[in-house]
Amino acid sequence: MSLTWSDQVPAVGEYTELRRLAGLGRRAPGAAARGLEGSLAAVSVRSRGRLVGMGRIVGDGGCFAQVVDIATDPGFRGQGIATGVLERLMAWAEAELPASCHLSLIADPGAFELYKRFGFEIRTGMARTLP
Ligand SMILES: CC(C)(COP(=O)(O)OP(=O)(O)OC[C@H]1O[C@@H](n2cnc3c(N)ncnc32)[C@H](O)[C@@H]1OP(=O)(O)O)[C@@H](O)C(=O)NCCC(=O)NCCS
After folding, report:
1. How far is the CA of 71 from the centre of ligand 1 (A)?
2. In the chain, where the domains are located
3. May I ask the CATH architecture of the domain 4-116?
4. What band does 29 get if pLDDT is binned at 50, 70 and 90?
5. What lines the ligand 1 site, CB under 6 Å?
6. Spacing, Cα 77 to ligand 1 middle (Å)
7. CB neighbours of 42 closer than 8 A, spacing ≥ 6?
8. Hey, whose CA ends up nearest to atom 12 of ligand 1?
């Protein structure tokens, strides 16, 4: 099945739906709208117009940036979608972010190998989600 790749930020509804399908934590609609608007870079992958894969980079655009929302619809996994999304995001980061920018992500252990291929290494971190 042919896929359409773009650098567009997804719309709020399709974003929250893909996060749900991918088993990622819920984000309130107001949070999603504000967050998507604040993206530095995004990749959307569609099949017949439906969002089936995505990824974003958020951050200050200078010192710190974070890779977030790497997600593939379960029906489309194992076809290289997340790999392609990361290739595009890393190409953008290398072209647009300044030297010394700290690029981070919070990885599911199942995805460690995927991220290692793009130069990420395991370091200790802490995080919390607001109630
Ligand atoms: C992790 C995830 C994004 C991979 O998406 P994908 O499009 O299937 O990935 P790719 O086809 O590019 O495969 C890349 C690697 O992901 C892993 N992978 C592939 N299919 C997978 C699956 N069905 N389940 C889990 N991991 C899988 C493998 O390590 C694969 O490496 P390989 O090329 O040696 O096979 C996807 O399984 C997903 O959305 N998971 C739930 C959300 C999540 O955990 N996101 C990452 C948060 S850090």
Report:
1. 8
2. 4-116
3. 3-Layer(aba) Sandwich (3.40)
4. confident
5. 22-24, 53, 70-72, 77-83, 107-108, 110-111, 113-114
6. 6
7. 7, 8, 9, 10, 36, 54, 55, 56, 57
8. 80
Ligand 1 centroid–CA 78 distance in Å is 6
Structure tokens, 64? 């710190």
Cα distance between residue 25 and residue 83, in whole Å? 21
Q: Which residue's structure tokens are 């190998």? A: 113
Give residues with Cβ within 8 angstroms of 16, minimum separation 6: 26, 27, 29, 32
Question: How many helices (H) and strands (E) in the chain?
Answer: 4, 5
Model pTM score: 0.94
Digit-coded pLDDT (tens) for 61-84: 999 999 999 999 999 999 999 999
